[in-house]
Specification:
10 strands, 5-stranded antiparallel β-sheet, 23% helix
Amino acid sequence: MRRLVLFCTAALCLGFTTVLLAQDPVKVDPKHYTVISENDQVRILKIHYGPHEKSVMHSHPATAVVFLSDSKGKFTFPDGKTEDFTTKSGEAMYGPAGTHLPENTGDTPLDGVLVELKGKSASAKAAAAAKPATTAKATKK
């Protein structure tokens, strides 16, 4: 009986850890993420970070993003590693599903339009939640 209780407790803790790592940015950080449009294939988000603003750890399924401003930032990943990035207005990129904590490290706003892909890529979200997203012009620290 004691082993069953320990097993159930461990399983419950692992389940909560996965849920915490896979949080929806619109729900956990509505200041920086707003839904523009959504259907059964995509969800389109407006991103806006003021200078030196920081988000919270959250996850996205596979994404495509178009940056609307030149900016500098940093991603922190669940394992503690960080990755600096720079963007140029009009630049577009793809990112696989992943979990991160973004921060605008620059003196100007960071703006963009993020398209989250649903369907097959969304089902891979849970499996890839701890993998870092690909960023343009990134340098790992």
